[in-house]
Design a protein that fits this description.
alpha+beta; 25 helices; about 15% strand; flat
């Protein structure tokens, strides 16, 4: 008998624990490709969502700064003035006031470092009695004095020295600009004597000559004639020209400056740093500037500076308001593209969640049947999505922030968070629907009610936009204008999903009557949808329709903007090219002949104008001064038709056979309203007289920009017989693709440089380019084309997901048909017959919806903010951009279907044949 070995007393055996396998890691290892694709989709979507607000901010900030700089070098400045003040002031007092003014900036806006300008200017100029000074029309030279603290920093001494003080009884020392000295024949040491006035006799000695380091420097922006001598016009019954300039005194000459100018005005100019301005801070900046100019800050500055007469002004509040109005006017059109991308991306996430749900429905149902709870399963799926989505979302947000630096991050973070949240919850929500108990079948009724609600909302949105226009006017993005195209696309998708099954069924029955079965089978599957659904899925249709509608509507808008800008430029110039002589001059005949013969000029027309004419009625009563335009009627009528202003029938200006017959004339509307008699007497500026007979009226004419000026158009033939000087035209117009650089080169080659400098050369090409230079318009264009590209990519992704979703059932059907003798090439043809009708129908439907959106919403669209100048409200349907976008996206959809069929069709069939059919 064997004795058992000693040991612990027997007891209960502890249960063996099975090690828990991490759910998320297991699932990611099981489907690495799907996980990577989901992470990539989230990364791209979040990158676009985070980058859009920052791109909009950057474009708006740049547009604001360029708008302010275009208003002039000193527009973005604060001005403070005090005076006139009596003698006894010092330069130190001016410096102390500047310190006070600078101390209250920086709260909402800053100044350009070292760009302040301050000093004092005499109230009046004094006439100089020196006989050697030039007097163009017997009017003496006028000299004013001023003091500028920073002048030595912005100039170079050309001769002599800078002025200092002046002993009593001696001439005040001044420094004069080199250019003014050359014009006035003044040298260092010249004493300039002023005519006696109530302040007594005075004289100034030129002790130095200076040159501006840069005459384009904003420092000289609004300072009067300090870098050169200016030719002024003396106001009188007979205007006369005279020279005027200013000279600088030293700090010790301030008292003499007061004596010379009959008083003086102290001034301080503080340029605001526009590079630090941001649109999102504009309301606060505007409030701070307004307080500085005429609010509590201005009151405090007056007390701190101890200058009760201190007055502060600035154009900035008005410019800020104008800039904000421009931005908000462009905002609705800018937002349409991103809204379309957001809609397509939303559909793609829903389709991706549906695809994942289809692939994992059996797994989820099995987990629920084995005791898993719905909350527990959803928590696991949420953790699975978090590991897939969150790293890509964080990386995309960081990349957008680093690539598009702006001071504001809240909108980008909010958009990124919303997109990441949707990507995170898309599949768990779909799983919740799959795991929920099945109810009855009133789904068709609920679907019908939902579709009717969408159609009603679409009709209401379109009606509201058409009835009230874009509203609220000037208040930023109009939600209805953004929602209306998207609702139209959604309604189109719902209608197409209703219409496509019976249409595809009819086509399938028609194809079934033929000898082949490929077309019948493909169209039949397209009619009934995949996965046992009674009709094709609405989501891929909506994605394609949204993409095509957004692209077509936006392309129509941008094409209309280009066309309106070109037409506005033509109207501003009066044609495609314009050469104008200076007042009182005429164009050289060689120039007009060379310009007309220039390559690209389709029509060249020389015009003579007289702006000193008067019109007298039969009763002898005269009209105000009018402008007479003399041109060849046929060529001028063609010019008016091309420009779109002042069109008329050239036959109206055909002269009568009698030599003394009145000249037929076209009257502008203001003159035509008073034209009650047949006979008029026209007196031209040279004293010539003509009899004129009104034969028609016009509103605006190509030869004169703008409308409303009192103008008469006369035919060249009868006028030239009575007015010989009319043979020397002062205007030339050209029609055709005239390049601005080539026309200017032609002028330089044809006429002397002195004559070319007095000519005004304009082309519609250069004018349109100037109108389109606004960064606000460029930003809108970039955002739109980026939105088109993103929407196209997402739409193709939706199509591919739809094909992948139907792949298992399609592969099973093809495998069965393969056993019946179906060849591989026929299998690919069957896939194309099933998928192409939906893609092509959606693309074509999107084009029709884009045209409908333009036709329905176009009358409410104002393109002025994008054109760069006021244009009539309204948007027409332009077939070319709509067709281009529709065909482009349709071609991409077809290529995607072809690629998917060629790559995966044969592989799916082979895999299905190897695995067998367990369905």
């Amino acid at each position: 008998m064997t004795t058992p070995p000693p040991g612990p007393p027997p007891g209960p055996v502890p249960p063996r624990r099975t090690p828990r396998t991490p759910w998320v890691r297991t699932r990611l290892r099981a489907t690495p490709t799907a996980s990577l694709l989901a992470a990539a989709l989230a990364f791209v979507a979040v990158l676009l969502a985070a980058g859009l607000p920052r791109a909009l901010d950057r474009g708006a900030d740049r547009a604001l700064r360029d708008y302010l700089s275009d208003k002039g070098p000193t527009a973005a400045s604060l001005y403070a003035t005090a005076g006139p003040r009596p003698a006894g002031r010092s330069a130190g007092e001016l410096d102390s006031v500047l310190d006070v003014l600078r101390a209250r900036t920086g709260d909402g806006f800053g100044l350009v470092p070292g760009a302040e300008v301050h000093g004092s200017l005499g109230l009046k100029t004094r006439s100089l009695t020196n006989p050697e000074l030039p007097q163009p029309e017997a009017v003496p030279v006028a000299l004013g004095l001023g003091y500028l603290k920073q002048a030595p920093e912005h100039t170079r001494l050309a001769a002599g020295r800078w002025p200092d003080g002046a002993a009593p009884g001696k001439p005040v020392e001044v420094a004069l600009s080199q250019r003014a000295a050359e014009t006035l024949n003044v040298r260092v040491g010249t004493v300039l004597n002023a005519a006696p006035s109530v302040t007594g006799a005075a004289s100034a000695e030129v002790v130095g000559l200076y040159e501006a380091a840069d005459e384009a420097d904003p420092y000289w922006g609004d300072l009067p004639c300090l870098t050169r001598a200016c030719l002024r016009v003396y106001p009188s019954s007979l205007p006369k020209n005279y020279w005027q300039t200013f000279a600088l005194v030293g700090a010790g000459g301030l008292e003499r400056l007061v004596q010379w100018g009959g008083g003086a005005t102290d001034f301080w100019r503080l340029p605001v740093d526009t590079g630090s301005l941001h649109v999102h801070e504009l309301p606060e900046t505007r409030r701070q500037v307004a307080a500085y100019v005429s609010g509590p800050t201005a009151t405090q500055l007056t007390r701190d500076a101890n200058r009760g007469d201190l007055r502060i002004s600035s154009r900035l509040p008005a410019l800020f308001e104008e800039a904000e109005a421009r931005r908000q006017a462009a905002a609705p059109l800018t937002a349409i593209g991103p809204a379309g991308v957001a809609g397509v991306a939303l559909v793609v996430f829903c389709l991706a969640a549906a695809l994942t749900g289809d692939r994992r429905e059996t797994e989820l149902t099995l987990l629920l049947a084995r005791g898993g709870s719905r909350p527990g399963i959803l928590r696991r799926l949420l953790g699975e999505s978090a590991v897939t989505v969150l790293p890509g979302a964080v990386l995309a947000t960081a990349l957008a922030v680093s690539l598009l630096p702006t001071p504001r991050s809240a909108p980008a973070l909010l958009a990124a968070s919303a997109t990441a949240l949707f990507a995170l919850l898309a599949f768990p929500v779909r799983a919740l629907v799959l795991l929920s108990p099945r109810r009855g079948r009133p789904a068709a009724r609920r679907r019908l009610v939902g579709e009717l609600l969408v159609l009603a909302a679409t009709a209401a949105a379109v009606y509201e936009v058409r009835s009230r226009g874009i509203a609220p006017a000037g208040q930023g993005v109009d939600p209805l204008l953004i929602a209306a195209p998207l609702l139209l696309a959604l309604s189109g998708g719902l209608l197409l999903a209703r219409v496509q099954p019976p249409l595809m069924g009819a086509l399938a029955r028609s194809a079934g009557r033929g000898s082949g079965v490929i077309g019948f089978l493909g169209l039949a599957r397209a009619a009934r949808g995949a996965g046992g659904r009674g009709r094709p899925s609405v989501l891929p249709l909506v994605a394609l329709l949204l993409a095509v509608t957004t692209a077509g509507f936006g392309a129509n808008v941008l094409t209309a903007v280009d066309g309106s800008r070109a037409q506005a430029a033509r109207q501003s110039v009066g044609g495609d090219a314009r050469i104008a002589a200076a007042a009182g001059d005429s164009l050289p005949p060689a120039l007009t002949e060379a310009a007309t013969a220039r390559s690209g000029v389709r029509t060249g027309l020389s015009v003579w104008t007289d702006s000193e004419a008067f019109l007298f009625g039969a009763g002898g009563q005269g009209s105000p001064r009018i402008t007479v335009v003399v041109a060849d009627p046929v060529a001028y009528a063609e010019l008016a038709r091309a420009v779109g202003r002042g069109q008329f029938d050239p036959g109206l200006l055909a002269g009568g056979p009698e030599a003394d017959a009145p000249v037929p004339a076209l009257f502008s509307k203001d003159l035509a309203a008073k034209a009650t008699e047949d006979g008029y007497r026209l007196r031209l500026g040279g004293g010539e007289e003509l009899r004129a007979r009104p034969v028609g009226e016009f509103d605006g004419t190509p030869a004169l920009p703008g409308a409303g000026a009192a103008t008469i158009v006369l035919p060249a033939g009868p006028v030239l017989a009575h007015v010989p000087r009319a043979t020397k035209p002062d205007l030339w117009f050209g029609l055709g693709p005239v390049a601005d650089a080539r026309l200017r080169a032609l002028v330089r080659e044809t006429v002397p440089a002195a004559v070319a400098e007095r000519l005004l050369i304009q082309t519609s090409e250069a004018t349109a380019a100037e109108l389109g230079r606004d960064p606000l318009q460029a930003s809108a264009g970039r955002i739109f084309w980026g939105s088109v590209a993103a929407a196209a990519v997402f739409a193709l992704l939706a199509l591919l997901i739809t094909l992948a979703r139907a792949a298992p059932e399609r592969a099973a059907s093809l495998a069965r048909l393969r056993t019946m003798g179906l060849r591989p090439r026929q299998g690919i043809a069957l896939i194309l017959a099933e998928a192409l009708p939906q893609a092509v129908a959606a693309a074509c439907g999107g084009g029709l919806l884009a045209a409908a959106a333009v036709a329905l919403l176009g009358p409410a669209v104002d393109l002025s903010s994008l054109v760069g100048t006021p244009v009539p409200t309204g948007l027409r349907v332009l077939p070319r951009p709509l067709t281009t976008q529709t065909l482009a996206l349709a071609a991409l959809a077809v290529l995607a279907v072809l690629a998917e069929a060629a790559v995966s069709g044969r592989r799916q069939i082979t895999t299905e044949l190897r695995a067998g059919d367990s369905r």
